[in-house]
Amino acid sequence: MSARDAALLVVGDVVTDVIARHKGPLASGTDTAAAIRTVPGGAGANVACWAAYRGGREVRLLGRVGADAVEWHERELTASGVRPCLVVDPQAPTGTVICLVDTGAAAERTFLTDSGASLRLEPRDWSDALLDGVAWLHLSGYLLFSAPSRALVTAAIASARARGVPVSLDPASAGFLVELGVDRFLALVEGVDVLLPSRDEACLLTGLPDAADAAAKLSRHVPMVVAKQGADGALVARSGTVTAHVPAVPATPRDTTGAGDAFTGAFLAALLTGAAPEEAAGKGCRAGAMAVERVGGRPPGVG
Description:
The protein has a single domain, classed as UDP-N-acetylmuramoyl-L-alanine:D-glutamate ligase (3-Layer(aba) Sandwich). Helix content is about 35%, strand content about 25%. The protein has 9 helices and 13 strands. The mean pLDDT is about 90.
């Protein structure tokens, strides 16, 4: 495939992030001081932006937003080097996520999510022509958490398989996975070539407490599993065996929002330029380290 036919197509969520960075526990029933910013976000959109930042290949994004913020999101995506293919929802507003970030040492975050238009992608929004010139399809796992977007995922995977286009998927949310159910999730990702779970998601999907064991088990169901472990780096597993443990890059976290998306975007960009999975995971770890030192889920110079 020539360079012009090596585009990455990301299908996923585009949302507005309201990030509130506070120190210590929230004070129930009264005020808690916080630094608050509104930035573009969404797991799918973040992955696309990091892939474009780390890539050199064309990156496209299919998502659904409300009329309230479509121009802003298109402008931000274009500024990141992403070609937006946004469907405007006639009824629902753009999704919004409130990210509560504790500014303690771990910079852990809690999400309050109003998916809005983002999970209203449906099969009518999909076209086989979206794969023209595409070398890789990546799906945000958030799409599995509503009936319309689940149907789109099924159609997109079938189209990609028919064209011989590899497919990756990031499970996206351990909390939503519990609601969906493990068996249902594994059935929905049938035909996916690469799964990129977090440590918690890998353990949840297998019922195993150890991330390496979980990644190995998942790789019997999906050809390649790349388990993201934050400060513990990443694991690459194939055919039931962990083939690499990639160390993390040291970082001083300010906001862990989007760190996994940064890893995924950089990993996919590296694969598209011919890197081996282990090398690509190393690039993912470097992007994740860069992401946690920033506020928001996008690369430098964006948002």
